[in-house]
């Protein structure tokens, strides 16, 4: 069902400083800031040959990662993203196995403009998992 690792997302306390550190210290290819008001996040993508790192910062007062950053004020890994061939089939399989899908359990377009769902971290050993349609 899962096909490849897409990215790891890290919530950071200062998006500009984090971007600069990845670019200047690690020599990474870092995108411009992308704001996603509908998701309540601002992100930059660190592009690697085989995957991406998504640096995230809260956007707006109702950001779903605002509380996460308050609890992890120095920043922390927020989630991992794994691609699947068929997200609808993946949703059915998750539900049939008692895995909780966050939100209204329906796929939404994510930051890569592809359908995604998030799986409850308590069902995967403390890790928030994003499944993204290939």
Write a concise synopsis of the structure shown:
The chain has 134 residues and is an alpha+beta fold. 20% of the residues lie in helices and 37% in strands. Strands 1, 2, 3, 4, 5, 6, 7, 8 and 9 form a nine-stranded mixed β-sheet that branches.
What does this structure look like?
With about 130 residues, this protein is α+β, with helices and mostly antiparallel strands. The chain is built from three helices and nine strands. Strands 1, 2, 3, 4, 5, 6, 7, 8 and 9 form a nine-stranded mixed β-sheet that branches. Helices cover about 20% and strands about 35% of the residues. The protein has one domain: 2,3-Dihydroxybiphenyl 1,2-Dioxygenase, domain 1 (Roll). The protein is globular and about 45 Å long. It has helices spanning about 15-25, 65-70, 85-95; strands at about 1-10, 30, 35, 40-45, 50-60, 75-85, 110, 115-120, 130-134.
Please provide the count of β strands: 9
Fraction of residues in helix:
10-25%
CATH homologous superfamily grouping: 2,3-Dihydroxybiphenyl 1,2-Dioxygenase, domain 1
Runs in which pLDDT lies below 50 for 5 or more consecutive residues are: none
Enumerate how many helices there are, as a single number: 3
Task: Compile the SSE list and pairings.
Layout: E1 2-11, H1 15-25, E2 29-30, E3 34-36, E4 41-47, E5 52-58, H2 66-71, E6 76-84, H3 87-96, E7 108-109, E8 115-119, E9 129-133
Parallel strand pairs: 1-5, 6-9
Antiparallel strand pairs: 1-6, 2-4, 3-4, 4-5, 7-8, 8-9
Task: Sum up the structure in keywords.
9 strands, nine-stranded mixed beta sheet, 2,3-Dihydroxybiphenyl 1,2-Dioxygenase, domain 1, 3 helices, 134 residues, alpha+beta, single chain
